[in-house]
Specification:
- By secondary structure, the chain is an alpha/beta fold.
- It folds into two domains: 272 residues, Aspartate Aminotransferase, domain 2 (3-Layer(aba) Sandwich), CATH 3.40.640.10; 132 residues, Aspartate Aminotransferase, domain 1 (Alpha-Beta Complex).
- It has 14 helices and twelve strands.
- β5, α7 and β6 form a beta-alpha-beta unit.
- The N and C termini lie far apart (49 Å).
- The model has no long low-confidence stretch (mean pLDDT 95).
């Protein structure tokens, strides 16, 4: 089935009363009925709900659905996009290891991966995901992951996924791609050979800024990469915290399973069932929304590109973009999602624009049905050191737009009056 159909039907069989809508299982625990059933589930001899920190029927439908739409083998939901990134890295690396992180990524991810994880003994090296020419030289025997974004936020650059995957596979390193901005409707990194995809479900998936959540999806053949791979003994040696369980011996996708049985079990950053239910509603209309977001954004990008006060526009849907050919070749119908940024030339002018918009709201979210305007240098990327900001292209005059679903002519008029 195609993605639009999977997003509406996959993973839910109408049982009992035949409810058309996916039921909301708002519960923390489950009655096993017998001691044997309880023991079997904890021993993985029988699959089923155990405790909502570990699994929940509503959340399971979300996981199965996003896995199908992303063309993956399995998925696991988390309490936020940041939690998804943390779990994906923590599943691979430990104190003394290093990860390689793209220069152009969301500021919160930069802080997590290059500063917070350092306190856990995991160091980060930075590479240029636009071309990945510097990636291979950064890999050593302690490298456990390569992290990048398919469409970066707020730079709106398009990573050279083919080259990143080629290098990662050559050295048997797991690649992780944040596909939040592109969404699985426009781009499927797993089809390109990426090992793991993460999402902030709080963005385009929910579509209305209703809930915080994250998702991790693993590639169909990731087991083969992890089994007998000396970089990842945690998948191949007995897990003392689970009675000597060896993940490599299990007949399941083992990356997300280990996140569930080891990390979510202990850390507990799991989504509320109601949030999972909201994300399911968002998935049903994602294919329609992301196309309209993309169409609106392209029109606004063309308007900004022609405006005399705008220095430059970052949007890969523009023919002037260095990423235009890559998007036309790799993204569905050449759509480039709903995020753009532009260089206003100064902090003062950027501040004026933010203060004068009437339809665009000054908010630090993206992917909402309502249009959003942000000054990254003073908000989402404020914690990033100035030298790193400059390297990644986040200047004092940079303005980021998350273009919503309003009438695009109204949005253009709003920006026009704000720049007068």
């Amino acid at each position: 089935m195609n993605q639009e159909t999977l997003a509406i039907h996959h993973g839910y069989e109408q049982e009992g009363l035949g409810a058309m809508a996916v039921p909301l299982y708002q519960t923390t625990a489950y009655d096993f009925k017998t001691a044997q059933t309880a023991a079997n589930r904890f021993a993985l001899k029988e699959l089923g709900p155990i405790y909502t920190r570990l699994n929940n029927p509503t959340t399971e439908i979300l996981e199965n659905r996003i896995s199908a739409i992303e063309h993956g083998a399995a998925a696991i939901a988390t309490s936020s996009g940041q939690a998804a990134i943390f779990y994906a890295i923590a599943n691979l690396a430990e104190s003394g290891d290093n990860i390689i992180v793209a220069e152009k990524i969301y500021g919160g991810a930069t802080t997590l991966l290059t500063h917070t994880l350092k306190r856990f003994g995991i160091s980060a090296k930075i590479f240029d995901s636009d071309n990945a020419d510097d990636l291979e030289d950064l890999i050593d025997d302690k490298t456990k992951a390569i992290f990048f974004e398919s469409l970066s936020n707020p730079h709106i650059s398009v990573s050279n996924t083919d080259k990143i995957v080629q290098i990662a596979n050559r050295y048997h390193v797991v690649s992780i791609c944040d596909n939040t901005v592109a969404t699985p409707i426009l781009y499927n990194p797993l089809d390109k050979g990426v090992d793991v995809v993460v999402h902030s479900a709080s963005k385009y998936i929910t579509g209305q800024g209703l809930a915080i959540g994250g998702l991790i999806i693993e590639r169909d053949e990731l087991n083969q990469k992890l089994i007998d791979n000396k970089r990842y003994p945690q998948f191949n040696e007995p897990d003392e915290s689970y009675h000597g369980l060896v993940y490599a011996n299990l007949p399941f996708p083992i990356f997300t399973l280990r996140v569930r049985l080891s990390l979510i079990r202990d850390i507990g950053a799991t989504p509320a069932p109601f949030n999972s239910w909201l994300f399911i509603q968002g998935l049903e209309t994602l294919a329609l929304r992301i196309k309209q977001h993309s169409q609106n954004t392209l029109k606004i990008a063309k308007f900004l590109e022609s405006h005399p006060k705008v220095k430059s526009v970052n949007y890969p849907g523009l023919k002037s973009s260095p990423y235009y050919d890559r998007v036309q070749k790799e993204f569905k119908d050449g759509y480039a999602s709903g995020l753009l940024s532009f260089e206003s030339g100064s902090f003062e002018f950027a501040e004026q624009i933010l203060n004068k918009t009437k339809i665009f709201s000054v908010v630090v979210n993206i992917g909402d049905s309502k249009s959003i305007i942000t000054h990254p240098a003073s908000t989402t990327h404020m914690q990033v050191p100035p030298k790193d900001l400059e390297k990644s292209g986040v200047t004092p005059g940079l303005v980021r737009l998350s273009v919503g679903l309003e009438n695009v002519d109204d949005l253009i008029e709003d920006l026009k009056q704000a720049m007068e």
